[in-house]
Amino acid sequence: MSKEISSPYAQFRDFKALYVTDISSLSWCEQQFHYSLHAGGRTETTEMKAGSDIHLKLELEVHDLVKVSIETSEDLWGLKLFNLLFGLEALRTTGETRELPVFGFVSDIFVFGIIDQIKKFPNQGIRKNNDWEWRICDTKTRSKCFRPKKSTVPSSVKYQIMLYKKLFDNLVESSIEEERIFEVLDLDADKSFSKKFSKYIKIYFSNFKKLNTLRKLMAFIKNYFGFFWKSNNVLEVNYKYQGDGSDLGSLYFEYEEDMLDKHLKRSIIYWKGDREPEGVPIEEAWKCQICEYVENCEWRLKKVREIEQR
Ligand code: SF4
Fold first, then answer.
1. What pTM does this model have?
2. Is the CB of 163 inside a 6 Å radius of any atom of ligand 1?
3. How many helices (H) does the chain have, and how many strands (E)?
4. Distance 290 CA to ligand 1 centre (A)
5. What is the pLDDT of residues 52-84, one digit of tens each?
6. Beta carbon of 303 within 6 Å of any ligand 1 atom
7. Closest residue (by CA) to atom 2 of ligand 1?
8. What CA–CA distance (Å, rounded) separates 35 from 24?
9. Model confidence over 27-49: pLDDT tens digits?
10. CB-based contacts of 154, cutoff 8 Å, min separation 6
């Protein structure tokens, strides 16, 4: 099997899209991520379920959720784009949105993600033309009822939110490469959405009922981004207590483009199968104590052997 065909990208993502977390999670432990891919993903723990419930509750505070029927791949991506449009409209009119889809290319791979929250706040006098700044925020839930120290925000969380910002800012700058997207995702941009899906669009997106193909919808979204500008360089992690969903406060950190780009480069090389995954360095061996693969981890066994032979 050629390296390209056997790459994680081909094997587990079918040469289509990577999620933002497929890239950010690698910074915790690549070997662990690799094992979980082969195991079919992580099993949902009680903590993960509690986290999802809190995210859903927060989303319902800013908009309703409706079930929509889809029939084709074009419907599926149409729905994602309508969610984006709906979210942008909420952001423009109310100053806040949640679960906003974003996408773009990293190297030549299409990447898709959903931003937990974007909210506006008064600008600090840096911009002349806009009264507001956009802040990107991700919510994390904790089993402990206090906020962690700033130094303990994991790099995986930082990469996740920084990549959201990069994708959002690129969309704002009208750099949507729609033809490339349609090609990679194997979508017919001029095929009308199915009757079933169109029926929902007319009910829930009555303003947008003429947008009956991906090409028209994408062109409209490109224009709509003209109402926005790049997000603020300060990014936010907001913490909620898993016990009762109460707010534990936020931590803030600066966007670092160089740091993100280095991580993106390394991650894409892994996904394309051009290098093996790496486990944690010795200074981060504590991560192995809470890792489900610790018993049989080849990386760890190799490191233990190296230490014994010294
Ligand atoms: Fe990574 Fe350690 Fe787990 Fe191995 S045991 S996958 S090195 S965290």
1. 0.91
2. no
3. 11, 6
4. 9
5. 888 888 878 877 778 888 999 999 999 999 999
6. no
7. 288
8. 16
9. 999 999 999 999 987 776 777 77
10. 27, 28
* Max Cα-Cα span within the chain: 71
CA nearest 168: which of 206, 146, 137, 193? 137
* 96 SS3 class: strand
Tokens encoding 233: 């360089």
Neighbours of 182 (CB within 10 A): 18
Centre of ligand 1 to C-alpha 304, Å, is 12
Q: How far is ligand 1, taken at its centre, from the CA of residue 272, in Å? A: 21
Question: What CA–CA distances, in Å, run from 147 to 155, 164, 246, 251?
Answer: 17, 23, 11, 8
Identify residue 177 by its one-letter amino acid code. Answer: E
DSSP state of 110: E
Alpha helices in 230-287 (DSSP H): 257-271
**Nearest Cα residue to 137 out of 262, 25, 241, 249:** 249
> What is the ipTM score, two decimals?
0.99
Task: Convert the pLDDT of each residue in 138-161 to its tens digit.
Answer: 999 988 898 888 777 899 999 999
Alpha carbons 78 and 237: distance in angstroms, whole number: 30
